[in-house]
Amino acid sequence: MLSTFSEIKIKGEAFTELPKDLYIPPDALEVYLESFEGPLDLLLYLIRKHNLDILDIPMADLTLQYMVYVEKMKAINLELAADYLLMSAMLIEIKSRMLLPKTAEIEEEDDPRAELVRRLMEYEAIQLAAQSLDAMPKVGEEFQVAHAYYQHIADIKPPEVSVEDLVEAWRNVLKRAKLNSHHKLGRAELSVREHMSQILRRLQTDGMCEFSQLFDMNAQGLSKLVVSFLAILELAKEGLVKITQQAAFSTIYIQVSHAE
Amino acid sequence: MREPENIVEMKRVLEAALLTAGQPLSLDGMLKLFAGRMERATIRMLLDELKQDWEGKTLELVQVASGYRFQAQSELSAFIARLNPERQPNYSRAVMETLAIIAYRQPVTRGDIEQIRGVTVNPNVMRQLVERDWVDVVGQREVPGRPSLYATTKHFLDDLNLRSLAELPAIEDFTQSEIPLDG
Lengths: 260, 183
What we know:
heterodimer; A: mainly alpha; Arc Repressor Mutant, subunit A; 2 domains; three-stranded antiparallel β-sheet; 8 helices; 3 strands; 51% helix; 5% strand; extended; B: alpha+beta; two-stranded antiparallel sheet; 4 strands
């Protein structure tokens, strides 16, 4: 059985024939490691380029081959072997659930392949997004930032620093850290994620924070206030911040949530 | 030293500061150039005028995430690039995919990234992104192990000439056709 897989070439012939199994031919192991980013990447390739049916997987062959593969992988890259092993276990689980006759009670059950398909499609979108990021013009390549020469005038005597100066400087740093800069508001979803990061960043420095302090009524437009609010709700939903209020109409506090 | 008294003189101060800064200047930064009262709205107005003054010249004034900067007109970049013929090596697929996940799904943990890519995150990949100052840690998720939450930085947006993440193409634009499930 193993001998059939030694024919598979990845770079030379690039899968002229679809392999019957979803695993890595041991002979081609190192080539595979270079060609694919992991089991999801490989599976996506087989489905998109060769119309592989997720159901059409010979389980016994797959298991046996995976064990051979994992043995080989131990010497090369154990972590990656674990990733492929997990994927094979998942495929086997899907297939066995598909084979089981469905009783009336579980007829409503979701297709076991749906979650895998969701993950594959999410990863596919991220792959394309990564390519688009890679293709975007960048500073130092497509953009050159102006930097005219400027001779900094050297002071002969070093400036004197008093404690008051230090305190004042610290106050300024805190003040500036509080002023989050302006952003053009675009698509809501991304902007909310961006504000989530900003609020988390701020809570890292300030610790606990009054709810109202997260909104700058003068500098922010209405839409920006709404996005900040949505970001706080989203952070709370994901359990990243804790919102507390002692009594009705009293001050609301936001803090990074801590494990119980 | 005499403080600038009219718009032309103020624009000269702003222009010199922006040209010598070598990095984007924020509105707060530019306020510091002027002693006494200066409104943000006035600075914005001056920046608009500067932008127009430089139209069609070798440099252009642009706004990015951290503030304003002068940069060479894009059609001149190809010539300037000849000064440094060695191109920066490209990032690996693993690095770019990790960056894309952080940009689109932030704040995320390494576990979130692994869930999407289906493979373990190589520490080297995160190190490259953090060293480039494109990604930083903004907190910890309060689950066992307190994993770090990663987000993209303003510097990342600056380097891509963006003012906000919202200027990136929407992730929905990359969603491909549904994977068929027959049988």
